[in-house]
Amino acid sequence: MGMPKDCPFCHPAVDDLPLLATPMALSLCDARPIVVGHVLAMPRQHSASALDLSLYELAHLRVLQFEICRRMLRFFGKSSAYEHGRTAICRFHASDRGHAHAHVHLVPLEVDLLSTATCIVEWEGSPPRTLSDRYIYQKIGLYGAERWVSVSGKVPRHFIRSALEEYMRSEGLPFIGLDRPSIDHARAIRETADAILSTKSLGPPRLIITPWRSSLSVSRVAAEIRSRLGLGIVDSYSILTLAAIASLQSSIEPLAYFDYIKNLTEALPFDLSHDGSVYVSGLSQVAEEPTQVLEDVVRRFCSDPKVLSIACDVTVRLAAHYGLTACIGCLGDFDTLKVTEVLPGDRSSNLLADDGIDLEEIATYSDLSEADNLNIFIEAIRLRTA
After folding, report:
1. How does strand 25-29 pair with strand 39-43?
2. The pTM is what?
3. Which residues in the chain come in under a pLDDT of 50?
4. What residues contact 327, with CB distance under 8 A and at least 6 apart?
5. Are 339 and 313 in contact (CB under 8 A)?
């Protein structure tokens, strides 16, 4: 689909305040925000709805949506995302143009708008991409369930805004009505931009969780992050490889490899290169070109949840010690949300909640190619420090 010359999303106005963006998606402050923090995320491609995008374009939109909502949650304490799929127009100031350019409303509120609509069908997962009806998409909270419903009858234009206004009015909450002076909207836009752009991690994420069972290995994802973003990475696969080397060279029975992993930071002389790669002194060549025997040992390690759990703990601690980023795999039954780091004064910090990113949760699409998934991973991490 082409880019209409007068579409305000294809060609943002000079006074629009751009926020974060990816090669396939961008975000702007709503021109007439209902509250401070009201942001619109949209694809660069002129499409009628998110369901009309390619899966790769949709992945970019969702990654951008997640990062905006993450910052919104940290600054305002709440975040939700809503889309009125195939809505009639883009923006109020474009009400006579009839363009349908997909956009998601991101607001620092948590309101169940679906309870106010007459729904025909609700899907637990994403609806079929062949759906021709208008729909409503809703995600309350950062890790809330995504919900889609097909609605009956003619859905009013600007349903999202109207429903939010009605809720806030009924709850006695302040909001910025359309009839308010333009200076009020301008002030809210500036405050929104300041909040979103100032709320980011202090440096790169310190913990990255990548899908363990996908065709993308942890080591490959870590290598791509090192190469393309310049981050120092310690990855759990390298730790397992080093433990396997130690086990083989010491002629230790397989049952003893638990101790090697538990005591890895003390038992082996670690050297870290400038890019964060981990080597064992004198064994870097072996680690880079593993033999079949070594591969078999590592494969056995990877099949043991207990070993994986210990390896991830060592990875996080080692990365924290050297001020690098830990990259670990999703371990199924192992609860990655509880990965913690021991800090001075016996304080604990949940790295994932405080300064981590779970690619398994927000940026993994089984139907995308490995190359496309890697690009999505990189964008998710890059946005964290944008």
Report:
1. antiparallel
2. 0.83
3. 90-97, 268, 274-276, 279-289, 332-349
4. 208, 210, 218, 221, 222, 225, 233, 234, 235, 236, 315
5. yes
